[in-house]
Amino acid sequence: MSWFIKFITSSLGQKLVMSLTGLFLILFLLVHLLGNMQLFRDDDGYAFNAYTKFMTHNPLIEAVAILLYIFILLHSIQGVALWLQNRRSRGPQAYAVKVTKTTGTNSFASKNMASLGILIFVFLAIHMGDFWWKMKNGTAPVVQYEGEEYQDLYTIVVASFQVDWIVILYLVAMVGLFFHLLHGFQSAFQTLGINHKKYTPAIKFLGWVYAILVPLLFAAMPIYVYFFK
Question: What is the per-residue pLDDT across 15-32, written as a single tens digit (0 to 9) for each?
Answer without folding.
Answer: 888 899 999 999 999 999
